[in-house]
Specification:
By secondary structure, this protein is α+β, with helices and mostly antiparallel strands. It is an enzyme of class 3 (hydrolase).
Length: 238
Amino acid sequence: MRLSVAGCSALGGRETNQDSWYADDRLITVADGVGGAPAGDVASRLAVESTAASGPDMPPEETANRANAAVRAYASTDPATHGMATTLVLAVLCGDGTVRGAHVGDSVTLVQTDRVEFLGSPHTLGAELVAAGHLTAEEGARHPNRRALVRAVGMDATVQADTWERPAVVGERYLLCSDGLTDALDDDVFLAALAGLRAADPRQCVETLVRLACEAGARDNVTAVVGDVVIGDPAWRR
């Protein structure tokens, strides 16, 4: 088995793109530089480069910690980037027949078969207050600081990534995206678009989703990466 992959990114409503992504036949990843902090583009690039360098055989949580160390090490040498941070989400097709992933922040991972399942919950103040029972879902959606990140790569000396593991099943589609995509599209529109693109190849899928988000007036950068589990030996076994 291998991943058939594609990625697409657009400025959306921003003047610069602070999203970064990478995809090969075993690993896909997206990072979204934290707005309001300096050098978000640098942070996301470093996180993605570190993730790609760690490779698919590294446990996802360790990959996230290496990315965190890379971002913080760079920031310690360049005052202009002090305090920079980024989200990070990744999925890996492992040699043992599983797909494993991790995320830090509010970028999204989902898997699509005959239905769509979101893997993990965002590390935002609103989501964590709801999860802890301090707010109802409706209250959390209205909280003035609901989108504030409580975890991000580069934010602290160490980072705790949420991880997941699933059997690798041929035909399943993994979609990673920055919140610029999901924020721009209503849930019903997003899910309907995914359903309509189920038979599309990865390139058509990501390009269509990014286009729809931009047409809907995306205020943030929009990035999507797809990895379809397909039959065939990946390059690392050839």
